[in-house]
Specification:
Order of helices and strands: HEHEHEHEEHHEHEHEEHHHHEH
Number of domains: 2
Number of helices: 13
GO cellular component, one term: outer membrane-bounded periplasmic space
Shape: globular
Organism: Nitratireductor aquibiodomus RA22
Radius of gyration: 23 Å
Pfam family, one: SBP_bac_8
Largest sheet: 8 strands, mixed
GO molecular function, one term: thiamine binding
Number of strands: 10
CATH topology of the largest domain: D-Maltodextrin-Binding Protein, domain 2
Strand content: 15-25%
CATH architecture of the largest domain: 3-Layer(aba) Sandwich
CATH class of the largest domain: Alpha Beta
Protein name: ABC transporter substrate-binding protein
CATH superfamily of the largest domain: Periplasmic binding protein-like II
Length: 344
């Protein structure tokens, strides 16, 4: 029988140990591509790698696709931290795909607003950014300037309003807010459909994507759109005189969460990444780069940045989170009803 030398055994053992160490020092996450992923890298991932010496592998996958992958890989998930913006963490936690988080292991958790860390023990990760849905408006043409959702019905804005199709996530949240201020709720969207019908009769138009909003503001004399705060900044960077206001009746919120995937070997390292995501430094960076609203109460923003987001105790007080599970359960029926309403 061939004898294996002690040197060879030692070499193999060292190689195996080195491989295990390398695996332990690498985590895989998803991000949302484009400018978001660039900001994600700059504000969180690169500082994390520099601090820990770990490598972060990024899979570009939006929330729905990432959730589908997580479900499909239930027995052998690839992600260590998974990010959602559509509330998928609620269902993922119920299905056991996410691990509960001990708040004591997150040094920044105590500074995060209660609503953004309410269900850590159930496996729903903390929200580290918020897309606040309000009214984008041309601050030179819109007179008077809008301050409330009910202002969409002001005849002064006839022919100058842009609505976004509810197949768009932000469009859905904007519509549900229009429905709510007109007396509806998630069990009855007819008041919202009636309000939309009246807006269309007065000359409002419906678009499907954010670039179409920019086109309407730039070329077709649009003044007001119900959409996310970050897009007001996008329009302003394109040279359009655009401002953002939270409607007085409340602000629908799309919470962007960082979640700990169950069944992975390096959860301590993953928790460090989640902790950095909810730090005031990371959130200040995200707000500056993309105008997402912070969830850490200690985040400090320049005045020009704060004007574009839901900021501070007063700013987040009016945030509304429509039940993502109920939205998903009714999405198909609501889209059908919406399509019948806007067909003209």
């Amino acid at each position: 029988m061939k004898t294996i030398s002690k040197f060879t055994v030692a070499g193999v053992s060292a190689l195996m140990a080195g491989t295990a160490l390398a695996q332990a020092e690498t985590i895989t996450i998803n991000s949302f591509g484009g400018a978001y992923e660039e900001a994600h890298r700059e504000c969180i991932l690169t500082p994390f790698e520099e601090k820990t010496g770990a490598e972060v592998r990024v899979v570009t996958a939006y929330s729905a696709d990432a959730f589908a992958q997580l479900r499909a890989q239930k027995d052998a998930p690839q992600f260590d931290v998974i990010h959602f913006s559509g509330g998928q963490e609620i269902v993922a936690a119920q299905e056991g795909l996410l691990s509960p988080i001990d708040e004591a292991k997150l040094s920044n958790a105590g500074d995060v607003y209660d609503f953004a860390r309410a269900n850590l023990a159930r496996g729903e990760g903390p929200a580290y950014s918020i897309a606040a849905i309000g009214l984008l408006y041309n601050n030179e043409a819109a007179d008077p300037k809008p301050t409330a959702w009910k202002d969409l019905a002001n005849e002064a804005y006839a022919d100058h309003i842009v609505l976004t199709d509810i197949s768009n996530g932000y469009g859905m949240l904007g519509f549900l807010m229009i429905n709510q201020v007109n007396g509806g709720d998630l069990d009855n969207i007819q008041p919202g459909l009636d309000a939309v019908s009246k807006l269309l009769d007065n000359g409002a138009i419906v678009v499907s994507t954010s670039p179409e909003i920019q086109q309407e503001f730039a070329q077709n004399d649009a003044w007001i759109a119900a959409y996310a705060s970050d897009y007001a900044y996008t329009l302003r960077k394109a040279g359009l005189p655009t401002a953002f206001t939270q409607g007085a009746e409340g602000t629908p919120a799309s919470l962007i969460t960082a979640n700990l995937v169950a069944g992975r070997p390096n959860q301590d390292l993953a928790l460090q990444l989640i902790d950095m995501s909810i730090s005031p430094e990371a959130q200040s960076c995200f707000a500056e780069k993309l105008r997402y609203s912070p969830t850490n109460a200690k985040t400090e923003l320049a005045d020009e940045v704060a004007a574009d987001v839901a900021y501070g105790e007063e700013g987040v007080k009016g945030l509304i989170r429509f039940d993502p599970v109920k939205i998903e359960a009714n999405r198909s029926a609501w889209v059908d009803a919406w399509n019948r309403t806007i067909a003209r």
